[in-house]
Amino acid sequence: MTFREPDFWVLEYVTIVKDPRTGLVVAIGGTEKAADILQRAGGFLSAPGPRGDYHRLPHGLSVEQQRLKATAASHALLAAGHSVHLDPALNALATPNGDHDAALRYLARLAERVTAAETSGEIAEALTEIAAPVTGLLPLIREVVVRAWIAASDLQGAAPGEETEPLARLRDTAGSMSQAAHMILRARNHAAARTPRPTASTPPANATPSSASCRR
C-alpha cells in the first residue's frame, strides 16, 4: 500500500518588528487576508517596498501605542490561523519587569557556575560571558554608560571636553570598563590555556617506580 504525504494549507509567516533605523513598527510577509487583519486590528498601513508591499504603523505613535497596536494585530492574526513572530519588545502583554528579573536570574546562575567550577575551562567559560567583545556583560553595560554620558551631555548642552565633573568622570568610567574587560579576557585566555591536573589514578610520566615493581 502506497502512502502519500498530506497537503497542508500553510499560511505565510508574518513578522512584526520595530525597525532600528527608522523606529517604525513594520509587518513583513503574509497573505492578502493577513494584510486585511493588520489594517483592521492594528491600524497598519500598506507601503511599497523594494521587494513588494509591506505594512507599517503610522508615524508619530508613542512607544506604548506601538506596542498595543502590534500586540492586537498579532493576536488577531494568530486567531485567524496565521503564524506570527512578534518582537518581544512590542508585546504589551509581557510580564512587567520580566527582562530585569531574567537578568538577575542569569547573573545568579553565573555566580553559582563559578562557585561550583571544578576546572579552569569552566571558569574561562564564565569569564567569556562577562567580557566577550560583542555579547559580554561588561561591554554591553559599558555601551549603556556611554549612551548615558552622550545623552546627559546633550541635555546640558556641553561640548566634548566641557562637561561638568560628574559627566567627565562618567566618560572616564566607560574607558575604565573597556580596560577591565580587556584584563578579564586576558585572565580568561590564561584559564583556558591551563593544562588540567592529573588525577590521583593517573601517575605522572616521570614518577619513580614502586619498590614492588622494581623487584618484579
Brief descriptors of the model:
216 residues; alpha+beta; 5-stranded mixed beta sheet; 7 helices; 52% helix; 8% strand; flat; disordered C terminus
Q: Largest sheet, if any? A: 5 strands, mixed
* Overall helicity: 40-55%
Which regions have little confidence, pLDDT < 50, spanning 5+ residues? 210-216
Strand-residue proportion: 5-15%
* Strand and helix order: EEHEEHEHHHHH
Secondary structure category: alpha+beta
Distance between the amino and carboxyl termini? 72 Å
**What spatial form do the alpha-carbon principal axes imply?**
flat
Please tally the β strands and state the result.
5
Looking across the biggest beta sheet, what order are the strands in? 3-4-2-1-5
The number of helical runs is 7
Question: Kindly state the mean pLDDT as a whole number?
Answer: 84
Radius of gyration of CA atoms, rounded to a whole number? 28 Å
Outline the structure in words:
- The chain starts with 13 loop residues before the first strand and ends with a helix.
- It is of the alpha+beta class and 216 residues long.
- 13% of the residues are buried.
- It has helices at residues 32-42, 63-79, 98-115, 120-131, 137-156, 165-193, 211-215; strands at 14-18, 25-28, 45-47, 54-56, 84-86.
- α1 crosses α2 (63-79), α4 (120-131) packs antiparallel against α6 (165-193) and α5 packs antiparallel against α6.
- Helix content is 52%, strand content 8%.
- A hairpin with a 6-residue loop joins β1 (14-18) and β2 (25-28).
- The chain has a 5-stranded mixed sheet with strand order 3-4-2-1-5, covered by helices on one side.
- It is flat.
